[in-house]
Amino acid sequence: MASDSKHRPVYVISVAAELVDMHPQTLRLYERKGLIRPGRSTGKTRLYSERDIEHLREIRRLTQELGVNLAGVEEVMRLQHELDDLQGEFEAEITRIEDELRDRATSRALPSSEEGRTDPKDRPVYVISIAAELVDMHPQTLRLYERKQLISPGRSSGKTRLYSERDIEHLREIRRLTQELGVNLAGVEEIMRLRHELDGARSNLEGNVRRIQDDLSERMTRLRTLPSPEATELTDAGPADEPVSSEG
User: Where is this region: Disordered (predicted)?
Assistant: First the structure.
């Protein structure tokens, strides 16, 4: 988990419940459902962080304002927790790279990564009729989901919709949420927004780590090409003095 102060557990359950206008028993229920993950003191007392408070307020918004059922809320909060964990992974990876740089010092450079690498899952290949058949939906349903911004297919040069493997995965997820879990469209919108955010965060994390690795690799290469201190001293001293001739 990120070391940010938002994640520091500070509020006991009675204070947390008051802050979000809920009964403490409701907070215990949400914890059993895995919607919230409070910390624990050494005496096993529940302690809630600012981030937990934000999550509880989000649960209240989803249930009271948007009418999302508990199954939908569980999906939303699972994605929220994944985003939190991803931030923690990013910070841990940066620390690991910094430690590796210190360990390697002026030894061989870090391996460089491929530039401009694109996930093949994001390549738009399926026209709408094929995409609809793959997910067992009507093409009009796919157009509706696009208008609702639940899905964002690519376009060919002739403006034909083209769906990627990732789009197909997202459409199957929408069908699971609506048909199997009974999540309403407002809940699906929240879940898919978070899925897109999570995909983008993962991509940014990978890109940032690659950039840092490349930057460290370049620095280490420059260090290896610097002249040694001994060579620098010889250069500063200039050429050796010529012996003095004894002939008149």
Answer: 223-248
248 within domain boundaries: no
Confidence category of residue 113, pLDDT binned at 50, 70, 90: very low
pLDDT tens by residue, 119-174: 788 889 899 999 999 999 999 999 999 999 899 999 988 889 999 999 999 999 99
Residue 237 lies in a domain: no
- Where are the alpha helices (H) located in 48-184, listed in sequence order? 50-60, 70-104, 128-135, 139-147, 165-175
What are the b/e assignments for 146-157, b being 16+ CB within 10 Å?
Answer: beeebbebeeee
In degrees and rounded to multiples of 5, residue 148 shows phi and psi of -80, 0
Check whether residue 45 and residue 82 sit in a common domain.
no
Report pTM: 0.62
pLDDT of 145: 93
* DSSP for residue 157: T
Please tell me the total count of domains within the chain. Answer: 2
CATH of the domain at 26: 1.10.1660.10
The domain of 90 spans 68-105+117-223
Same domain, 33 and 54: yes
| Res. 82 pLDDT band, cuts 50 70 90 | confident
| 169 in the same domain as 192 | yes
Mean pLDDT, residues 39-59: 91
159: three-class secondary structure by DSSP: coil
Q: How confident is the model at residue 65 (pLDDT cuts 50, 70, 90)?
A: very high
